Amino acid sequence: MLETLRAPAIEPSHELRDTCAIVGIGNSRLGRVPGVSSHDLLVEAMKNAIDDAGLKVSEIDGIVCRGPDESYTHHQQIGARLGINARFSTTLDNGGASQILGVALATMAIKAGMASTVIIGFGRDSWSRTHSSKEANLRNETRPDSQLAQEFGPEYGYFGAVSAHAFGATRHMHLYGTTRDHFGAIAVAFREHALRNPQAQMKKPLTLAQYYEAAPVVMPFGLLDCSLRSDAAGAVIVTSRERARDLRQPPVSIKGFGSFNNLRGWFNDDNMVTTAAKNSGAAAYRMAGVGPDDVHTAQVYDCFTYMVLTQLEDYGFCQKGEGGPFVASGALRMGGRLPTNTSGGQLSESHCEGMLQVVEGARQMRHAYPAERQVANAEIALVSGHGGNQVCHSTLILGRA
Amino acid sequence: MRDPNKKPTPRPSPETAHYWQAAREHRLEIPRCNACGQFWFPPSQSCPHCLAADFSWMPVSGRGKVFSFVTYHRVYHPAFAKDVPYVVALVELDEGPRLLTNIVGVAPDAVACDMPVQVTFDDYEEGVSVPKFMPRNAAAE
Question: In this complex, do A156 and B100 lie within 8 Å of one another by their Cβ atoms?
Fold first, then answer.
C-alpha cells in the first residue's frame, strides 16, 4: 500500500493523454487448440491484428510481449516468426499485469521517438499443457518446476494461484460479510456475456444454483469461481494519433494508464483485500482526466470471481466492502451500471492473462459489435491487469477517438 | 524420484536451513533484526524493515491468530488424498510476521479468521518436522 511509499508525489503525464491509439486488434483461435505452440498462437493473433489495421508486417517497428516463463528473449523469437527487425523490442515480466504495461510502454516508446508502430501481444497454451498428461492435469500447473516454491507451500498441500486468491476471498467475507452468492453473481453475469460471443469456450447457460452445484476446489472457491484453462492469444497495435488517421479502422484512443506493485507481498499488509488496483487506478484516472463515474464498461482481470469484486471496489465503482451488493445488483450485466467482461472474460470466454481484456476493451470502443454485444453509447472503457504473485497491477483507460 | 504418495518435504535454501533445523527440534525460530528489533518472515539475509544485515534467529511464542484460511477439497498431489478436506492458513504470529501453515486438531468448518492458535509440530519423516497450528484452547488442554 501507498503508506509504505515515501517517494515524492508524482503527477501522471497529461501530455500522453490521447496521443496514441490502438489501430489493430486480433486474437487467435481460443480454447482447445491442440498441436499449436503458444508462439504460433501469438503469431496468429498478431497477423490478425496486422490485417485488421490494414498494415504490412514490415511497417511494424516495435514488439512488446510477455513470454511464456521458460522462453528466453521471447520477443526475439516472435520477431523471427514475424520476419522483422524492430527499433524497439522487449519482453515484460509482470505476469497478468504485463499486457497493459505493454500498451503503456508502446505509447512511451512512440512518444520518445523510439518506434512508430508497436505490436503488443501474449499467447499461452495452458489447455494443451494441462491436458498433456494425467499428472499435468492433476497439478494444474503451467509454470516450469524451477519457478515453483520449494518450501513454505508444498509441504502444507498448498498449490497454485487458486489458494492465494481464496485467502483474499475468505478475508473479504470475514471483514465485510461478502458471500458466495456475490461470487456466483459474477460467474453468472460473465456466462451470459459469453453466450453472445461465438468464440467463447463456455457455451451453456449458467444459473446460481448450478454455480453452487459445481465441485468444491479450494473453498471458498468452487470450480466456477476459477478461470478457464485455455490455448489463446491476443494482440493489439499502437501508433500515434496522427498516423492512426490514415489507417483502416476507427482509432481507439489511449487516454491513460497506470500501474502499482505491492511488492511487499500478497500475504502482507492488507494487500489481499485492498489490492494494487487502487493506486494503479488512481494514476490511470489522473492521466486520463476521468473518474469511475465516467467509465461505461470495464474489462477486469478475472482469474477468480473474488478478484473482480475487490477490484471494482479498488477502482471506486463502489466503496470498499460494498462489492458484494454492487455485483448482486446486476451492475455487471449488459444494460447494468457497468457492463463488465462483456466477452465472457477469463471465467467464460478464454484465459489469456489479461490480453483478451485489452482486446475486448478496444473492440467496445469501436462500436462495431452487433447491438446485443455492444455496450450502448460507451465512450470510456477501463481495462485491468493483475498478476505476478498477485501483487502487480496495471490499468488502461481507452476512449472513442 | 521421491515416492509420490509421500508428502513433499521442504527443500531448504541457505537462508532457511536454520529455520528447518530448529523445526526439526520442535522450536519455532525466525529472524530478528539486531539493528531495529523487528521480526520478519520468510527468512532472508537482510532486514526488510531497515536493510541491516545483522540479525539473530530468535525463538518466538508460537502463538498467533488465523489471518485467513482456505479449505482444500481438490487433490493436487496424491499424498494429500487422505487429508481432504484440509485447511491451509495464513497465521499471524504475535510477533508480527505471517506464516503459511495448516490448521490441525479442529474440523475445517470450525476454523475462522482471527481464531487464536498455537504452534505444534508434525513429524513427516526422519529429520523433517513441519510447524503447524492448532486452536489455542485445544492446545491448553
Answer: yes
